Structures are given as C-alpha cells and as structure tokens.
Amino acid sequence: MTDINATREPGRLGRVWNSNFVYSFRKNPVAVVSMAIFLLIAAAALLAPWLAPVDPYDPSLFDIMDSELPPVWSDSGDSRFLFGTDDQGRDLWSAILYGTRLSLIIGLCAVALQALLGISIGLIAGYVGGRTDSLLMRLADIQLSFSTLMVAIIFLAVTQAMFGSETFNQYAVFMLIAVIGVAEWPQYARTVRATVLAEKKKEYVDSARVLGFGPLRIMVRHILPNSLSPIFVISTVQVANAIISEASLSFLGLGMPPSQPSLGSLISSGFDYIFSGSWWITAIPGVVLVVLVLVINLLGDWMRDVLNPKLYKG
C-alpha cells in the first residue's frame, strides 16, 4: 500500500524552507550570525520604549549630577546605568536604544525614497529610450559626479541657515531622509535601466503589447519583477550607506540634534570628552554603529552571491 504521507507534496512553508535561497542561507554561518545580530539589534531598537529604563527625550528625567558616569563594570560605575551616562546625565543605554531605532528609520526610509525615484526613472529611461533615456542618464551622471555627503552638507547647511536651528531640528528627520534619498537614486536607475534594456526585447514583452497592455502595466507587472534580484542587493548595501551618511551628517552637526539622539549624534556629543577620560560616550555608540553596518554589509554580500548565478557555487 502506498504511503499517502510519502507522496504528499510539501506545503508552502516547506517549499520555502527547501528553496535554494533559504538553503544557501542555512548553510552559510556568516549569513546566519549576521542575520541573528541584525535581528537582535532591530528588535531591541523596536522595543526601545519598553527596554529603555528612561525616556532620553525627556530632559526632566536627567540629573546633571549623574553626568559622565562610567559603565557599570567600571570601579566607579553606577548600577542604575548599564553603559554609563553622557555629559547631560542621560542614561546611555536608553539613548543607544532610541538612537539605533532612529538611525534605522532614517536608513530604511531614505532607501525607500531612493528606490522609488531610481526604479521609476530607470524603468522610463530603459523602456522609452531615445532622447528621454539620454536626458535621464545624463542627469544620473551629473548626480553621480557629486558625493552624497557633499550634496547633503551643502543642502542641510543652506536649509539650517535659512530656517534657523530650531525649525531645522524640528524637521531634521525628514530633511535627512529627503537629502540622502534624493542623492543616491542613480544607483537604482542605472541598474534597472540595464535590466529593462535586456528584458524589453524578449517575447513575453512583445506578447503583452499584442494583447493591448499599456506601457505602464508592461513596465510594472512584467519587466519590473525580473529586476528584483539586483534591487534587493542594492537596497541591502544602501541601507548601510544611508545609516553611515546619517551618522556622518549628525557628527558634523547637520543631522539629528542632541535632544533627539541618533547613533551619529551620540558619537558627536561624546567626542569632546574622549580626552578627558569619558571614552564610553563615543566608543559604545560607535561600536553599535560599526556592528550594525558590518552585519548589513555581510548580508548584502551573501545576497549578491546567491542571487548572481555566475558567482553562486552552491
């Protein structure tokens, strides 16, 4: 008698678990460890309101007499403050949790804006071609000739001078998302355009035209899905780049203000106290930033290898 369970097809979860993508992930210890660390950091940042002992946004909870206390493992550490305190007497553990959440939000939103602009421009340039393609790609070339930090520094400095520090600090999150997102869209546009140029000559696109589908539907429903692999790889790397850009701008005083801690603003606020012995104010947020960016880049490298059949060895 034939065993029914032996001939039963695996469910959707089973097919995903046994897919080449998940199998390669399970067999790659670097990817597994990187994902575990990233999920741990992301979960801690997401649960910051519940994990943080105090709200670092509320100055009434700080005591200036507690300023520059070392971490709890130091001889003069205070058991109330796991990672010590900063120059304002703010609990550094709480500030890091909220700051990591803010840095991740800025990074993810900036990359979403980059992807929206870049994918749209890349689809139009590759599908329409001709003068439209030339014009859009020349704009991308001009954009790529300027570094992201240079564009961001000029824009944010001018904006801060025009509207004043108080107004700028109030909308600093949106400013950073906008400037980082707009500065990096050519990475997506050039990649998507190259894919569109290859895909639009294939038979399934000709069939869609014969069936009377419009250009927008063909680009979004038929060509775009075949461009997702390089988009995922770019997005992973760009999240890390966006977090670094935010930290750099905050360190230069053009990002998040000290009252709204991000990893960059925490590193910046403690930089003046390194030589006085209060190394933890800058060092601990700096370590968190390095680890976060490192694991995201390692995941991006693994994803690039898996999604590129010429590089993947199985």
TrEMBL record:
Sequence ranges assigned to domain ABC transmembrane type-1 in this UniProt record: 100-300
The protein's predominant localisation is membrane
* A GO BP entry: transmembrane transport
Q: Which PANTHER family match?
A: ABC TRANSPORTER PERMEASE PROTEIN, OLIGOPEPTIDE TRANSPORT SYSTEM PERMEASE PROTEIN APPC
Q: Family, per the entry?
A: Belongs to the binding-protein-dependent transport system permease family.
This protein's name: ABC transporter permease subunit
Q: Which residues form the signal peptide?
A: none
Lipid bilayer topology: Multi-pass membrane protein
Q: What Gene3D superfamilies does the record point to? A: MetI-like
**Name of a matching Pfam family:** BPD_transp_1
Give its localization.
Cell membrane
Q: Where are the transmembrane segments?
A: 30-52, 102-130, 142-162, 168-185, 231-257, 277-300
CDD domains hit by this protein = TM_PBP2
Provide the Gene Ontology terms for cellular component.
plasma membrane
Keywords of the record: Cell membrane, Membrane, Transmembrane, Transmembrane helix, Transport
Organism field:
Thalassovita mangrovi
